[in-house]
Structures are given as C-alpha cells and as structure tokens.
Amino acid sequence: MTPEVWDYIFHQTNSLPKTAIKKEALEKMRNEFTYWYPVNLRASGKDLVPNHLTYYLYNHTAIWPTLKEMWPTGIHANGHLLLNSEKMSKSTGNFLTLTDALDKYGADGMRLALANAGDSIEDANFETQVADSGVLRL
Q1: Strand ranges across the sheet with 81-83
Q2: Stretch 13-31: mean pLDDT, rounded?
Q3: At 28, is the pLDDT very low, low, confident or very high (cuts 50, 70, 90)?
Q4: 58: CB partners within 8 A, 6+ apart
Q5: Is the distance from CB of 74 to CB of 42 less than 8 angstroms?
Q6: I need a labelling partner for 99 at 20 to 30 A (CA). Which of 28, 29, 60, 77 fits?
C-alpha cells in the first residue's frame, strides 16, 4: 500500500498508480469505497457533538479539502431514551430491552409509546403506562 495507491482508492487522484497490485483489485477497492461514500447522514448521540462528530467533520475536510462532494451532508444528533422519566440503567434496574418491550407491549403498543415519547433534541421518555393503555385501547 503506497501513498499513490491510497490516493487512487480514496479519490485523491484518478490516474492509476504504478504498483504490483492488479488493476481489477484496485478498481474493486475503489468501488467498495465509493459504495459507502459520500456519507449523506450520520446519526449519533447528542453527547458526541463536541468530540466525535466535530472531528468527523474535521477529518473529512482535511482528507478531501477540494472534493466537497466527499464531505458529510448531514448529521442527526438524537437524545437518549428515558424510561418512565428516569435514565435507563441496568445497575438501577430501570431498564427495558427492545425484545422485552415487544414481548410485553407488542409492536402497536411500542409504536404508540414511542410516538408519544417526544420528537425534539430533548431526551425521549418511553412511558410504560402509555404503552399499556395503548394496547388496551386497541
């Protein structure tokens, strides 16, 4: 792996590098990369904005300073999920897995409780009473 091969694979240059690597292999690597790039949306937790997501932007602009089409076009920062207005935590016992919630409330009860949980950057609050009453109303 030479700098020229690296640059070809990751779209720094369009000319084939001088290398012992077969052209088909180079094209396959470049196509694999192109399948995933550019990234049009990165979804992550709001707690990662000041570090991971900031460096995510820095890294892309540093690697492709003149190829703006390789830069991320969107970041979605979501909040955390509360359970009955309390932080979910295995250590405190206030915890509900997706499988357990589906077993207990079914898909429709889950949908109703999640739709009621909130849709802003604020932490969503899954309320078991909403899921229970939704199941009963259905």
Answers
A1: 86-87, 81-83, 124-126
A2: 94
A3: very high
A4: none
A5: yes
A6: 77
